[in-house]
Every structure is written in structure tokens, then in C-alpha cells.
């Protein structure tokens, strides 16, 4: 039923059902997810692309000037937020999930250091990235996506405690 709809439209329909049809619908919108999955082998889009390209060229890679920033959240913190939402959230609630943010140039440096490239980073042009990976790259690696999880913290008492993205990359990217 939802397969052909944009994610934003799906979120609207879930919340509307929560109000109009007495379906307990809750929307959680994670930012860049990192960490080791505890269940299904699933990865976020951004970090695997950065890591793969960095390995190909021997340096941490970012697009353009690398100033674009994305909020991020550790997968264990995200799982905890889902549990809290199931326990406490009223129907039609909408929560962002984040516990900090990083610029892509910094992510590239963390990846470079983890891979033994001594922090060396290289800019990748948007045109080359799109040609290699497709148009989605302009949204997943070359934009800002900055959110705050104020509602999740205040309403649900969510307290993210997962390790930082910098630490996770340092100890898990090889």
C-alpha cells in the first residue's frame, strides 16, 4: 500500500490514522544511523558509501567542501527510543532521533584515521559522485540534515548513551 509513496507522505498518513482512525501510529525519523546492528544486517546509507570510496582512493572522502552536516544516532539508542515510544508515546506522535551531528569532512577524517591513512582527506566533486553512484548522492552525502530530538527527550525521557560516531568509526571501521 505504501510502496509508491514518499516517506514524508507515509509519515503524514501514519499520523492521520492515529488521529482519525484510532490507530496508534507513531513516527520516528532517525538521522544518520551508525553502530553495529544487533539483528538484521542493515547499514545506513552514508557511512558505508564514505568508507567504500575512501578505501578505493586511499583517503577519507567527502563531497565538495565537506561542510555539510548530518545529525546522527547510534543504533542502540535508536532501538531504545522505539521501546520508549511503544511504552509512552501518544498516538500520532512524531519524533526525531539524534544525538549530535558531524560535518562530512570530519567523518572523512575519522574514516581516514581508522583505515590507516593518517587523516588524509580528499574532496570528491558532486558531478563525479552522481555519475558513479546516482542522483541520490546529492541528498545523502552532499546536503545538510540537521534535526534535534528535543521532543523525544522531553516527552519520553529518552537519554541516548551510545558511543560517539567518532569513537565507533575508530574502533569498527577496518
Describe this structure in words.
The chain is α/β, with parallel strands linked by helices. 45% of the residues lie in helices and 17% in strands. It contains eight helices and seven strands. It has helices at residues 7-20, 46-57, 75-88, 104-114, 126-133, 137-140, 150-156, 165-172, and strands at residues 26-30, 32-34, 60-63, 69-74, 93-97, 101-103, 121-124. A three-stranded mixed beta sheet has the order 2-4-6. The chain starts with 6 loop residues before the first helix and ends with a helix. The mean pLDDT is 90.
Backbone shape: globular
Low-confidence residue ranges: none
Rg value: 18 Å
Approximately how much helix is present in the residues?
40-55%
User: What is the string of SSEs from the N terminus onward?
Assistant: HEEHEEHEEHEHHHH
* Strand arrangement across the biggest beta sheet: 2-4-6
**How many separate helices?**
8
* Mean pLDDT over all positions: 90
Structural class determined from secondary elements? alpha/beta
Structure summary, number of beta strands: 7
Bin the strand percentage.
15-25%
The end-to-end distance, rounded to whole angstroms, is 40 Å
Task: Please describe the biggest sheet, giving its number of strands, its sense, and whether it closes into a barrel.
Answer: 3 strands, mixed
Amino acid at each position: 500500500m505504501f510502496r509508491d509513496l514518499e516517506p514524508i507522505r507515509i509519515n503524514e498518513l501514519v499520523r492521520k490514522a492515529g488521529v482519525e482512525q484510532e490507530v496508534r501510529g507513531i513516527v520516528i525519523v532517525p538521522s544518520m544511523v551508525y553502530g553495529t546492528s544487533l539483528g538484521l544486517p542493515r547499514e545506513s546509507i552514508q557511512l558505508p558509501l564514505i568508507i567504500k570510496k575512501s578505501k578505493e582512493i586511499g583517503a577519507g572522502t567527502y563531497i565538495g567542501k565537506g561542510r555539510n552536516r548530518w545529525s546522527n544516532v547510534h543504533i542502540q539508542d535508536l532501538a531504545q527510543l522505539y521501546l520508549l515510544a511503544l511504552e509512552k508515546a501518544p498516538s500520532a506522535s512524531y519524533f526525531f532521533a539524534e544525538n549530535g551531528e558531524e560535518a562530512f569532512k570530519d567523518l572523512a577524517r575519522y574514516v581516514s584515521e581508522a583505515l590507516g591513512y593518517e587523516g588524509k582527506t580528499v574532496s570528491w566533486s558532486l558531478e563525479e559522485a552522481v555519475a558513479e553512484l546516482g542522483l541520490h548522492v546529492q541528498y545523502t552525502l552532499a546536503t545538510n540534515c540537521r534535526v534535534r530530538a528535543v521532543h523525544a527527550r522531553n516527552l519520553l525521557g529518552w537519554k541516548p548513551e551510545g558511543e560517539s560516531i567518532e569513537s565507533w568509526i575508530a574502533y569498527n571501521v577496518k
